[in-house]
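Q: Structure for this?
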Amino acid sequence: MYPTLFDLAIFGYIAATGLSLAYLVQREEWLHRLASVATIAGWVLHAVALLALAFRLGRPPLGSLSEAMSVAVWVAVLWALWVERQYGVKVLGAFVLPVVLVFSLNSATTRSLGIPGIERALGGAWIWVHIGLVLVGIAAFVLNFAGALMYVLQERQLKAKRPGALYYRLPDLETLDRLTYRTLALGFPFLTTGLILGVLWAGRAWGSVFAYDPLALLSFVAWAIYAGTLAGRAAAGWRGRRAAYFAIIGFATLVLTLSAGLFLPGRHGS
Amino acid sequence: MALFVAGLSHKNAPVELREQLAVEEDKLRELLSDVSATGVVQETLILSTCNRVEVYGVADAPGEARAVAFRHLCRYRGVSPASVEPVLYTHVDADAVRHAFRVAASLDSMMIGEPQILGQVKDAFALAQACETIGPVLHTLFTQAFAVAKKVRGETEIARHAVSVSFAAVELAKKIFAGLRGRAVLLVGAGKMGELAARHLVEHGAFPIYVANRTWQRAEEMARALSGAAVPFAELGTALASVDIVITSTGATEPVVTRAMVQRVMHGRRARPLFFIDIAVPRDVEGSVNTLDDVYCYNIDDLKQVVEANIRERLREAQRAEALVEREAAKFGARQGDVEVIPTIVSLRARLEGIRVGEVRKALTRLPGATPETREAIEVLSSAIVNKILHAPITKLRESSRAGSSRSWLELVHELFGLGRK
């Protein structure tokens, strides 16, 4: 029964993505309301689907990368809903949901491929914490990316002095910069702690951390980019466009990391 | 018995005529009671602003009622009715409803979306109520018109986006900063425009205000007027370091703020944005400061360009507002229990408007170099063609509805324009 629920959830996200993009273009209030409804519906179905899966498996639905990504998407959508209300950024959905959709389609296409022997490999309780922390971090970086993208677009409009449709739709630069900073500050500790646990656990279980695992290697590149951005923001007063560019590069690396995990042979992947 | 509106507006009557016919409140009271005393109207309301003079009413013979009302009006103002007659327009029933909705929603205004008109209509309504010339028909009509106006303001952006240079500057500042509360402003020069822009910023919470001027005394005067502080003109470079928004409007022939000056202060600002509003001609701020990170510099032409974009945005929103008004007018008509032809008219309009919008878009993509004027001309031209084409069939449909013979006409129009079955 669970694939049906996942499919329904994805269908909800597809509808929400379409409606959010339409709202960005059309700016009809009802489109935004429908998009919110579709998002919430997708999210609730997703929650039920994950619960059902957990019961069926008798363990958290974090046993494979695609399962974990599915949970990351679920957390990201929750945060997007919250941030939208908190910051009043009604167009947020148009920037978060496409990413959500790509992630969930990805995890849907690879869903069937379990990691052989995963149950045994995942023996320790720490591994669940490792996965959980990292995916919460990833969810925060989805929003970080959306904020940075909106910042870059709005900044470009303001510099070019030719207000286009996006100038009217997007919020002010300061709000977007704050959103980008806060999501970075939120996601980074989760990612860091998660990675440290991963390193410790891998050292014990596999003997070596990086050995032949593209995902592990790339994830440290992504971590370094985020660490650099955070340090730049905190110490050197980086803000605005530079910070936004780094957020985008960091997220691109993260996507590359996850793709490597999904499509390349390695210890995380299928 | 028919609902009608007759009048003249900025669209077809010159200002000389409008100002002659504008009536102040006291006279309006007399006029309302005189017109209703003649017995040609059951209900009446007169709207008189500097852009329009309109008589709304309910009468058995709208033509006669219009003649009586304007004869009175002309007599009051000593205007010859012959000069008014050619520019008068009259709308009856469903058209009158739509007209009332459009006027209240500021779609018929000189500057679309301007907020005063709704207040003026409300005043006119209150006055007519006080004079007891409002009956059930006008009461329902105007109550609904106010609701539609509110809806239009809430659901479209025709009233948003500044149409003056100084407000456009405030809006730009609000796209850079999260609110203007506590943002420091530096006003360089003591021009009127600069002062106006500074006042708008202060109204939105900007604080503190610094004023720099070559003449110290003038700087102090202006600072007092704005509850700010004067700073020496020579220390402009230092002052730049601590403020968020700079308005320049000096009469200097050379730039008073150079790229080098700004570059120097940006180092110490830790990427805190700096927004220059340069309304001086010749310019006070070197244009190249805009290329510095976190610096935004808008000169008077840039601001005008933003205003033009804002107006285009309002006009785009106005199309949505028109559709909304059309729907509401149709609903209103349906509630009034008549005019089975309105849905057809609405879909006929929508059909042609859809074709128009599509073709205009196609044409414009083939004309990437078209100036805003050209684009607007194309819009206006195509709208005019659509309206002219629509006029005859819509009039015919309305007439047939009133004559009770609408069914065959409806079928015909649906067939001819491929509107689908009704």
